[in-house]
Amino acid sequence: MEQVNRMNWKEPRVKFALQAVQQAATLAAAIQNEMVTEALTKDDRSPVTVADFAAQAVVGSLLEGAFPGELLVGEERAEVLRSPQERRTLEQTTTFVSRVISGITPEEVCDSIDRGVDEPGENYWTLDPIDGTKGFLRRAQYATAFAYVESGRVMLGVLGCPNLNHDLQESRGGNGCLVIASRGAGSWIAPLDAELDGSRFKQLKVSSRSDPGEARLLRSYESGHTDADLIDIFQAELGGRADPVRMDSQTKYALLASGKGEIYLRLLSPAKPDYREKIWDQAAGSIIVEEAGGKVTDLDGRQLDFSQGRTLKKNRGICATNGIFHERALKALKAVRA
Ligand code: AMP
Ligand code: MG
């Protein structure tokens, strides 16, 4: 059946979330271009530190202007940045943030970052300023992820992916893309620098593949974030033969929503079997898949519950699919005891 969803591009939260992510992700891309250079040593994480702080400062400051009373649960806090040892980091961060918010002072940058120290309430915004920090440093995939949650359910999600073009091709230093979903209004994609009136946005739809032999798995690039061996066993149990797609960050959700893959699992890493997913790592991506016609649950088939604080305490891992494969994927997970 054809989807007949319609996004209201004039709705204040939709407009605000798109604008905030567009500005934060565009700034992150500039920081990556200017700071992740050949001269960077292997252990130097300063570019992603600056980008994390700068992107959260931009969103925190814009939220304060648009919806001053609302809760923001952000991944970062400014405590370290305020210390004398980090003066240089704060100076660099302030220089970048002032490209978006002219005249902002270092103190205001810290306050804008700390706009995100709230704990989740009945309704709240949640932000991952740079999701996929390792991808950012490899000049690969990363995303700014922003979402609005009401009563434990994600209602709006936006991803800004500077190294993924709006035709879903990976492109370092390309145009990037902006992806949005709103409950009941579908999932949509446009170039990162698009006008936000909706004219450039195209609707996303998950893949209609149903043959397990053709199911493409999306998986983390970093093996420490999942159980890589068990994913191989899962694929054999499912009967899958297609090559997996390995990628950092929530851009994997954008690919699943666009039909470029069928199954995305976050299994528990054997090193951290009690790990619980952070809300900002899953909120925006999961609604984008659901609104494109897919399904997202935990490994036991439970709905994700965003009312449990900063982590998904009541859920174990993630199973996201095009919908068609969901029951088969959960059954295969049970069989391999994931
Ligand atoms: P990905 O890029 O898909 O590998 O996921 C990146 C996210 O994984 C980061 O934002 C972290 O919050 C999260 N992460 C960190 N450690 C773990 C872990 N042990 N298990 C699962 N996720 C983790
Ligand atoms: Mg993250």
Low-confidence stretches: none
Helix count from the secondary structure assignment = 9
Secondary-structure-based class equals alpha+beta
Note the gap between the termini. Answer: 34 Å
Envelope shape: globular
Bin the helical content.
25-40%
Number of strands: 12
Mean pLDDT: 96
Q: Biggest β-sheet, characterized?
A: 7 strands, mixed
Spatial sequence of strands, sheet with the most strands: 1-2-3-4-5-6-7
**Proportion of β residues?**
15-25%
Elements, N to C (H/E): HHEHHEHEEEEEEHEHEHEEH
Ions, cofactors, ligands: which are bound? Answer: adenosine monophosphate, magnesium ion
Radius of gyration: 19 Å
Structure description:
- The chain is an alpha+beta fold.
- Helix content is 33%, strand content 17%.
- The protein has a 7-stranded mixed beta sheet, sandwiched between helices.
- α6 (228-238) links the parallel β8 (217-219) and β9.
- The radius of gyration is 19 Å and the shape is globular.
- The model has no long low-confidence stretch (mean pLDDT 96).
- The chain binds adenosine monophosphate and magnesium ion (MG).
- The site of magnesium ion has 3 residues, from β2.
Can you give keywords for this protein?
338 residues, 7-stranded mixed sheet, 5-stranded mixed sheet, 9 helices, 12 strands, 17% strand, binds adenosine monophosphate, binds magnesium ion
